[in-house]
Write a structure and sequence with these properties.
Layout: H1 4-14, E1 17-22, H2 27-38, E2 42-48, H3 50-59, E3 68-71, H4 75-87, E4 93-96, H5 101-108, E5 122-128, E6 135-139, H6 149-165, E7 172-176, H7 187-200, E8 208-213, H8 215-219, H9 221-226, E9 239-241, H10 245-258, E10 262-268, E11 274-275, H11 283-299
Parallel strand pairs: 1-2, 1-4, 2-3, 4-11, 6-9, 7-8, 7-9
Antiparallel strand pairs: 5-6, 5-10, 10-11
């Protein structure tokens, strides 16, 4: 898949799946959930303050008779309930509503009702960027602050799962650094070369990993040729693995605000997809994220 219209169409064909929305009294979230319902992509169980949900739904003409509503006013308990619906098999994914990410993740990681699967949790953003013939995946811009080599390996594996859900069978992963040569004074470049070697040895499967790359020669074939870089990933990267959360956050927000791109975001590594977007994200981004999570749930056989 190369654009979000294809994702939406495929989610409609392969869905619907059921979302458990944690603290659902959020205008953009309810809009996105309603659009997903109308398109046949997803159903939803709305967990949160029923009065506030009803008030918002009335303002945006959303018919709540189509949804199960579980009235829990406490945001911590609402988050726990949404997660437990997934762990009990009553829903296929969790979506964050009007609540801090940390509250939802605490419930996800709860040993009694949580969805921890043993792998590191990481955020993968998917961008449809004008002028590119493919999606650009950015990871990790939201979860892991300064991942070590082992965690970077797991972040790559998580991002590859997202790409596989979009029928990208062998995604190309560029380990992005400040320079494209290994420099012992710059540990991310050392990690990059090790990750490439781990991929060559079969320790990281389902993708092609290369690094270190600068951002330019990761996404631009012209830049790669200009710098004399020959590698299957050079200039053709699908997935950009950033060295730390600062780099990821700046890259993510630059792509959102400096380009006319569309995007979606999910947390991967749990037993089920977690739809996690910023409160500033539009209902379109939230809808795209729901569709992405539906395809991931289908791919996982949920």
């Amino acid at each position: 898949m190369k654009n979000f219209q294809q994702i939406l169409n495929s989610a409609k064909e392969r869905g619907p799946k059921t979302i458990a929305v944690a603290v659902a009294q959020d205008l953009e979230v309810l809009l996105a959930v309603s659009q997903a319902k109308d398109m046949g992509i997803a159903d939803a169980i709305l967990v949160g303050d029923a009065e506030q949900i009803a008030e918002i739904a009335k303002a945006i003409n959303v018919d709540l008779n189509q949804y199960q509503i579980i009235d829990i006013k406490d945001i911590h308990e609402a988050s726990r309930k949404a997660v437990s619906l997934v762990s009990e098999g009553k829903a296929h994914m969790v979506m964050k509503g009007l609540v801090d990410t940390s509250v939802v993740l605490k419930a996800v990681l709860d040993p009694e009702i949580g969805l921890r699967a043993g792998n590191a949790l990481s955020h993968t953003a998917v961008f449809e960027v004008p002028g590119y013939d493919r999606f650009i995946f950015v990871t990790d811009a939201a979860m892991n602050i300064a991942p070590d080599l082992k965690t970077k390996k797991q972040i790559i594996e998580n991002a590859a799962q997202v790409a596989h859900a979009l029928d990208i069978e062998l995604p190309k992963v560029a380990v992005v650094c400040a320079k494209e040569k290994v420099d012992p004074k710059m540990p991310p470049t050392v990690d990059a070369k090790q990750l490439e070697e781990m991929n060559q040895q079969g320790e990281i499967a389902g993708c092609i990993v290369g690094g270190p790359f600068g951002l330019d020669n990761a996404v631009s074939e012209e830049a790669a040729v200009h710098k004399g870089i020959e590698h299957p990933v050079a200039g053709k990267a699908d997935i950009l693995l950033v060295p730390n959360i600062e780099a990821g956050n700046v890259l993510y927000k630059s792509m959102v605000f400096f380009s006319n791109s569309k995007n979606a975001g999910v947390i991967v590594g749990a037993k089920a997809p977690i739809v996690l977007t910023s409160r500033a994200d539009s209902d379109e981004t939230k809808l795209n994220s729901i569709a992405l999570a539906v395809l991931m749930a289908v791919k996982a056989g949920k």
